[in-house]
Amino acid sequence: MPDVLVAGGGPTGLLTAFELERAGLDVLVLERDARPTQQSKALALQPRSVEVLGDRGLLADLEPHVEARLPAGHFSGIPIDYSDLPTRYPYQLGIEQAHVAAAVEARLRTPVLRDAPVTAVEQDGHGVTVTAGGRRYRAGWLVAADGGHSTVRTVLGAPFPGTSARYSMVVADVTLARRPAGLADDWQLPSSASGFLLPLAGGRFRTIVYGEEQQRVGRDTAVSAAEVQRALTAAHGPEIEVAELLWASRFGDASRQLERYRHGRVLFAGDAAHIHLPVGGQGLNLGLQDAVNLGWKLAAQVRGHAPAGLLDSYHDERHPIAARVLVSTRAQAVLGVPDPDAAAVRDIVTGLLAVPEAHRTVAMELSGIGIGYPDTMGRAELPVTSDGRGVLVGAALPGDWADRVALQDGERPQLVRPDGYLVWAGGAGLDAALNRWFGRPGAAADLSRRAG
Questions:
Q1: Of 22, 373, 376, 439, whose CA is between 20 and 30 Å from 36?
Q2: Which part of the chain has CATH 3.50.50.60?
Q3: Residues 406, 421: Cα–Cα separation, whole Å
Q4: What percent of the chain shows pLDDT beyond 70?
Q5: Topology given in CATH for the domain delimited by 168-252
């Protein structure tokens, strides 16, 4: 029996499983689809996610698939410079989501169980039973990372408040028979919502179309090549011609978030916990950061040495971060509306973002570099490469925390959580920080004696 079941084999679920496995747990990922998706989906890794994947030795596997290193992000198409951010990676990586998922999946010890859609979830005081693909699986915990239409969320009846979509758009991967000279020759920031084109590997192009027709058509109506052709012709003229529609989906600006990320022995992450308009390159990265925050905490809980409240701190830390992203993406949606009043607001915001202090604030937020948690000292700048443990730098380790904290030489004493956040920086308080985040030595044995 695995220690943890993970519902959903996308990047969030896979990275959660990776984090749990490197902390020594047995994990089984249950994925609805029969084979890995070939759809491009998200196309950018923000600097903080690049740091996290680099710390875990995954960047080398991604390198052959990187399309571009983008020195800027964008806020509803307004460029946001990343070049002076305090990070080893002051850029976005342009890469298809499918390659990120494949790189993480290749590192798992236990293969993903495919063609296993979740249909039922039952839990008690000792574990969770999941019915998937017609079979029942039992584990101590379940991580629900099964996307924006999460079956686990529906089965549990977890409240998912927010706003419904007001606007509808189409995202598609296409091949082109013709295109105007100079159009989509390389990766550039989107300058408009409709007709945006980006070159992908293998002669494919990503486009987003957004116009009057998309508002009239029902959300469940299949996207046709003719519809995409009409939108691209309107944006770029008659010289552009769609050869083949490879994949397409309708999406909107719905914005919702779970009230609680933990429901008993079920924890939610990624789009299963929050949905928003995919603008500014936030969605994939938000899910990856959920995974690295949750993984080490759930592992500590399973292994019996999690201090009181550690697992619940996953919700306490990540819920406000996602809430802020939902505010950001809703604001960006308004700025992208083709309306004179929205255009006036956009002009004002563009001017405000030219102010260096405002520009840097937004850059730190979009990139993830500036994100921290209330009981930490912010993101640590040193790489965290241990096997799921924290890292103590430049100091002696008191007590017997060796199974939870690795030692590292360095001039600046500091204690870093497994997800890369600084919790002690020299002076008094090391014992308190170790106890707060890693549990005092002997705690697991004490729990075993009490249980017996």
A1: 22
A2: 4-162+256-367
A3: 15
A4: 96
A5: Alpha-Beta Plaits (3.30.70)
